Automatic annotation (TrEMBL):
It comes from Vigna angularis var. angularis. Transmembrane segments: none annotated. PANTHER family: ISOPENICILLIN N EPIMERASE-LIKE PROTEIN, L-CYSTEINE DESULFHYDRASE. Gene3D superfamilies: Type I PLP-dependent aspartate aminotransferase-like (Major domain). It comes from the Eukaryota. The gene is Vigan.08G184500. InterPro entries: Aminotrans_V_dom, PyrdxlP-dep_Trfase, PyrdxlP-dep_Trfase_major. This is Aminotransferase class V domain-containing protein.
Length: 441
């Protein structure tokens, strides 16, 4: 007999009402979708390379064969319409105004090159003046820092870095440091032409209050804002109208189940966005970034064409992509708390500043005192214990009891045993008296 509850909690019976069975994906089906993963490895690093289910890989293979079977028919009859379907789905997911604001590119690094290339041209053509400023976070991804060096600094621009300590305790301290950096940039008498802001930083992993920072940029006259959100879609809330940036990019192969490699670049409709160009110049040059990106020469476009199949996959989960995102967050926080309790450490940020990745303090007795130590310990965990997890050396603060953190991810294929395996591996190292000082160079 089915029953519901009044608001006061009293149960009311409905003798003729039957509960509808759910057709959501089962645990066994999830494991089958990811059976191509190495079963000997506790893969706690979805954030680095993402994952792709077997059903989506099968659709990708169909696209690849369709291309190889009759390339001309594929090009003239299928490619453009297929890419438009994928772009339209992304446009709706991220709440862009128009599909022409969405371009599909290989990855967030390509999107970064597109935006920074435009900035470099502005310096070379005299639109920007030598010494004009680009802001970036201290937490910015290493490849983005290199791209700023390659495009902006080489063209005559200057960079102001927003310093951020770790662990981080509140959004307020990020906003406060960002405001100070804006004041520093403007104090030189130059204009701040571009702010590059992460949405979910890579290492250490923190969800940045992008909406607040974009609003601050508008108030302080920062000309344009580019949000590097490589991890965002499928990992945290993404809404172009709410965030309000000029440019926004996110990989689709990290947390959105596409095969590598595909990302989207949102460029808010404006006169400046019409002058964005793909760095690979092909026949479509001058027809708008979305069209330019749809053909950069003969290559495998299948990763960009499977977005409808990904949508079919995520619909098999209760709540779709948003329900999945919330469950991933809740579980990874729970696992993080389990680990720090076992090791007597702490998380690197409050749960509400985490998404599907959490920074977990490692036992100080491991003696992780450098980036080299962190990398070597990561290698040992992989080779000796079958645990794949990145490790972040947080620096040598004198009052720090924890010098390094592991970044654990949670995606739908992860099981409790994965995190227990990691816990047991660290406990074994501690029991054995291991320290990173024992590692050879």
């Amino acid at each position: 007999m089915a029953s519901t509850e009044h608001q006061n909690g009293d149960a009311v019976s409905h003798p003729h009402k039957k509960l509808k069975p759910t057709n959501f994906i089962t645990d066994a089906e999830i494991q089958s979708e990811f059976s191509h993963h190495d079963p000997a490895v506790a893969r706690l690093n979805n954030g680095a390379f993402g994952c792709c289910p077997a059903s989506v890989l099968a659709v990708q293979r169909d696209w690849q064969l369709k291309n190889l079977r009759q390339p001309d028919q594929f090009y003239f009859n299928h490619l453009k319409s297929g890419l438009l379907r994928s772009r339209t789905i992304i446009k709706d997911l991220v709440n862009a105004h128009h599909v022409d604001e969405i371009s599909l590119v290989d990855n967030a690094s390509t999107a970064t090159a597109i935006v920074l290339q435009q900035a470099a041209w502005a310096f070379h053509e005299g639109t920007f003046q030598k010494g004009d400023v680009v802001l970036m976070l201290h937490y910015a991804y290493g490849a983005v820092k290199k791209a700023i060096e390659a495009y902006v600094v080489r063209a005559g621009g200057s960079v102001v870095v927003v310093p951020l300590r770790f662990p981080v305790t509140s959004n307020d301290e990020i906003v406060r440091e960002f405001r100070k950096a804006i004041e520093k940039g403007k104090s030189r008498g130059n204009r701040i032409r571009l702010a590059v802001i992460d949405h979910v930083t890579s290492m250490p992993s923190v969800v940045i209050p992008v909406k607040e920072l974009v609003t601050l940029c508008r108030e302080e006259g920062v000309e344009q804002v580019f949000v590097d959100a490589a991890h965002a879609i499928g990992c945290t809330r993404v809404d172009m109208q709410e965030i309000g940036a000029d440019f926004y990019t996110s990989n689709l192969h990290k947390w959105f189940f596409c095969p590598p490699s595909v990302a989207f670049l949102y460029a808010r409709a404006s006169p400046k966005s019409r002058d964005l160009h793909h760095p690979v110049v092909s026949h479509e040059y001058g027809n708008g970034l979305a069209v330019e990106s749809s053909w950069t020469g003969n290559r495998d476009y299948s990763a960009q064409l499977v977005v409808p199949a990904v949508i079919d996959f995520v619909k098999r989960f209760e709540g779709g992509i948003e329900g999945m995102r919330k469950r991933n967050h809740d579980v990874v926080v729970e696992m993080g708390k389990m680990l720090v309790e076992a090791w007597g450490t702490h998380l690197g940020s409050p749960p509400d500043m985490s998404a599907s990745m959490v920074m977990v303090g490692l036992p100080p007795c491991l003696g992780i005192m450098s980036d080299s130590h962190a990398l070597k310990l990561r290698t040992r965990l992989r080779d000796e214990f079958g645990v794949e997890v990145p490790i972040y050396f947080a620096g040598g603060e004198e009052d720090a009891t924890v010098t390094a953190y592991a970044r654990i991810s949670r995606q739908v294929y992860n099981k409790l045993e994965d995190y227990v395996k990691f816990k047991d591996a660290i406990n074994q190292l501690v029991t054995d008296g291991f320290t990173c000082a024992l590692l050879s160079d």
